Automatic annotation (TrEMBL):
<keyword id="KW-0732">Signal</keyword>
<feature type="region of interest" description="Disordered">
    <location>
        <begin position="342"/>
        <end position="408"/>
    </location>
</feature>
<dbReference type="InterPro" id="IPR000782">
    <property type="entry name" value="FAS1_domain"/>
</dbReference>
<feature type="compositionally biased region" description="Acidic residues">
    <location>
        <begin position="397"/>
        <end position="407"/>
    </location>
</feature>
<keyword id="KW-0449">Lipoprotein</keyword>
<keyword id="KW-0654">Proteoglycan</keyword>
<feature type="domain" description="FAS1">
    <location>
        <begin position="27"/>
        <end position="173"/>
    </location>
</feature>
<keyword id="KW-1003">Cell membrane</keyword>
<comment type="similarity">
    <text>Belongs to the fasciclin-like AGP family.</text>
</comment>
<keyword id="KW-0336">GPI-anchor</keyword>
<feature type="signal peptide">
    <location>
        <begin position="1"/>
        <end position="27"/>
    </location>
</feature>
<keyword id="KW-0325">Glycoprotein</keyword>
<feature type="compositionally biased region" description="Basic residues">
    <location>
        <begin position="358"/>
        <end position="379"/>
    </location>
</feature>
<dbReference type="Pfam" id="PF02469">
    <property type="entry name" value="Fasciclin"/>
</dbReference>
<keyword id="KW-0472">Membrane</keyword>
<feature type="domain" description="FAS1">
    <location>
        <begin position="187"/>
        <end position="326"/>
    </location>
</feature>
<protein>
    <recommendedName>
        <fullName>FAS1 domain-containing protein</fullName>
    </recommendedName>
</protein>
Length: 436
């Protein structure tokens, strides 16, 4: 009897633990919360389209001031660009938790709430603050800095204390600052933005390369994210850059931009490899994004760099500064090997084996064959400049970086495995407790 009782208790506890694990531990999903309320579908759709939903899901202690579909038409009928819509809607995301109860108990009769608009660089001065005022008859009004008080609390929609509160307000908050036209993508002065915010050397390097400049400018419209090295890092790197052949210079510049718009929130939830503007069929030119808390790291097989600053985050363009120059393996594996490499033993008198940049595919292939031969012999570091680098593991000095990455990757795998093992283990315990 006692045993049966304890079995029941054990299995209940295990079942509870299993359920806990099964529940999505992600804090909240505003898209899903609002999906329960069809009369807010227009607002919800725009949160997704402007990528504000990602930003909202990443934060806690926030309040979303939503308006219903009828009130949204005042906004959607104006023909605003997506980045202006983003500014306007970000004014409706308060960086504090206001449930219905708190709204009606505001100490001193009014409160000033910072918004997501204020948190971006887009809001001039204090235009990103919203004044919440208690009015006669239990009314609560919302007035953006520099605007009128013409929008009022209607009702609470969803409350997850104290992570996220979604409330309905009667009208879109009127704000000249938020609805000001933003620069059209085609007119964005990429090098100007970089120069003004600590990436002047990279900007000048880009400007002096018409091919890459053109590729950058043409990519903005469809969405682009640039990872430009800060001035000190780029300055130190210039001698190496100048050593590259013309096509490699262009490939290197193109490698530091990705043909997709990534806000910081999106980068932080996007681990994994990304294509760059330098990627084409034969040449991968990938970089890998890795997140660790608030840190975003970019890696290749050669090195890793960290994002240290946001120069602009205005859909469709984001530019981030990095602490070092991210090196594509397609261009710098050879450089990393070159210095300490012993002179390769002449083979069949083929001089093409000297560590000079290989031009053309055929030569690259020939080299690769040779490389294999060498590997068998001695695994000597072999300089390989060819663009169409294969995925064979790197050898020689840069092998260290490779191993590090491999270690990290397997560590992640082990952690993931441990989690799965834990679940399976619990399940087995649970099952066996029934059998006892
Ligand atoms: C609130 O957010 C925290 C941190 O993301 C999360 O751990 C917690 O489960 C959330 N609470 C609720 C009730 O969703
Ligand atoms: C939030 O929910 C929507 C709709 O259910 C889904 O498409 C989206 O992937 C979810 N986002 C996250 C971060 O889970
Ligand atoms: C909010 O605005 C009202 C006037 O509309 C003003 O009296 C009050 O001081 C403001 N509150 C704060 C906290 O700035
Ligand atoms: C871009 O900005 C730079 C530096 O601010 C300036 O010299 C250049 O004229 C600008 N280009 C265009 C097309 O506006
Ligand atoms: C540039 O290339 C030359 C010849 O390959 C080499 O000797 C030199 O060290 C390189 N300079 C840099 C900074 O990489």
């Amino acid at each position: 009897m006692a045993k049966k009782m304890s079995t029941v208790i054990t299995s209940s506890i295990l079942l509870f633990l299993l359920l806990l694990l099964a529940v999505d531990t992600h804090a909240h999903n505003v898209t899903r919360l609002l999906a329960n309320h069809p009369s807010f579908s227009s607002f919800n759709h725009l949160l997704t389209k402007t990528h504000l939903a990602d930003e909202i899901n990443r934060r806690t202690t926030i309040t979303i001031c939503a308006v219903n579909n009828a009130a949204m038409s005042a906004l959607t009928s104006k023909g605003y660009t997506i980045s202006t819509l983003k500014n306007i809607l970000s004014l409706h995301v308060l960086l504090d938790y206001f449930g219905a109860k708190k709204l009606h108990q505001i100490g001193g009769g009014s409160a000033l709430a910072a918004t997501l608009f204020q948190a971006t660089r887009a809001a001039p001065g204090t235009t990103g603050f919203v004044n919440i005022t208690m009015l006669r008859g239990g009314k609560v009004g919302f007035r953006p800095d520099g605007g009128d008080m013409s929008s009022f609390f209607v009702k609470s929609i969803e409350e997850v204390p104290y992570n996220i509160s979604v409330i309905q307000i009667s009208r879109i908050l009127p704000s000249d600052a938020a609805s000001a036209p933003t620069t059209a993508p085609a007119e964005m002065n990429i090098s100007g933005i970089m120069s003004a915010h600590g990436c002047k050397v990279f900007a000048e390097t880009l400007l002096s390369n018409p091919g890459a400049s053109k590729t950058y400018q043409e990519s903005v419209e469809g969405g682009m994210t640039v990872f430009c090295p800060g001035d000190d890092a780029m300055k130190a790197f210039l001698p190496k850059y100048k050593n590259l052949t013309a096509p490699k210079k262009e490939a290197f510049l193109n490698f530091l931009a990705v043909p997709t718009y990534y806000s910081m929130a999106m980068l932080k939830s996007n681990n994994g490899p990304m294509n760059t503007l330098a990627t084409d069929g034969a040449n991968k030119f990938e970089l890998t994004v890795q997140n660790d808390g608030e840190k975003v790291t970019l890696t290749t097989r050669i090195n890793s760099v960290q994002i240290v600053n946001t120069l602009i985050d205005e859909q469709p363009l984001a530019i981030y500064a990095t602490d070092k120059v991210l090196l594509p393996k397609e261009l710098f594996k050879a450089l990393a090997v070159e210095a300490p490499a012993p002179a390769p033993a002449p083979e069949d008198g083929d001089v093409a084996d000297s560590p000079k940049p290989a031009k053309g595919k055929a030569k690259g292939k020939k080299k690769k064959k040779k490389k294999k031969k060498k590997k068998k012999k001695k695994a000597a570091p072999s300089p390989d400049d060819s663009f169409g680098e294969s995925d064979s593991p790197a050898e020689g000095p840069d092998g260290d970086a490779d191993d590090e990455n491999a270690d990290e990757a397997s560590a992640v795998r082990i952690v993931g495995g441990a989690q799965a093992g834990f679940v399976v283990g619990l399940f087995c315990l649970f099952a066996s407790s029934w059998l006892i």
